[in-house]
């Protein structure tokens, strides 16, 4: 299955085959797993954020939600998190290396 994806013009894209893990005879009842690898491509200076709120040290937005299991849940916006889609703080290293200011989206329980 071939896929070509682009995320809102932010330089994040994937093109290629989506690999499937085949179920063997000993795994009857198990579902096939699909894995997609996403790679971030920054514009010009290697940053993910080319123009949004560049006057801020780090762009972080918060959204208040009434039904969450945790008080605060950070979602990755740098595409480098090892726990994607959740933020693991990888943006800190990315920001220092590229002079970028990308930060997580914070969902906060009301």
From TrEMBL:
The keyword Methyltransferase does not apply. Residues 58-97 form the Iron-binding zinc finger CDGSH type domain. Keywords: 2Fe-2S, Iron, Iron-sulfur, Metal-binding. Its cofactor is [2Fe-2S] cluster. InterPro entries: CISD1/2, FeS-contain_CDGSH-typ, MitoNEET_CISD. It holds the Pfam family zf-CDGSH. This is CDGSH iron-sulfur domain-containing protein NEET-like. It comes from Camelina sativa (False flax). The gene is LOC104726446.
């Amino acid at each position: 299955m071939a896929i070509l994806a682009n995320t809102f013009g932010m330089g994040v894209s994937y093109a290629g085959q989506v690999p499937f893990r085949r179920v063997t005879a000993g795994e009857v009842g198990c579902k096939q797993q699909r894995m997609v690898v996403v790679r971030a491509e920054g514009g010009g200076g290697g940053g993910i954020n080319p123009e949004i709120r560049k006057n801020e040290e780090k762009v972080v937005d918060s959204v208040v939600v009434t039904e969450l299991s945790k008080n605060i849940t950070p979602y990755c916006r740098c595409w480098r998190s090892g726990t994607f889609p959740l933020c693991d703080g990888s943006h800190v290293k990315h920001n220092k290396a590229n002079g970028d200011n990308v930060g997580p989206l914070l969902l906060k329980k009301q």
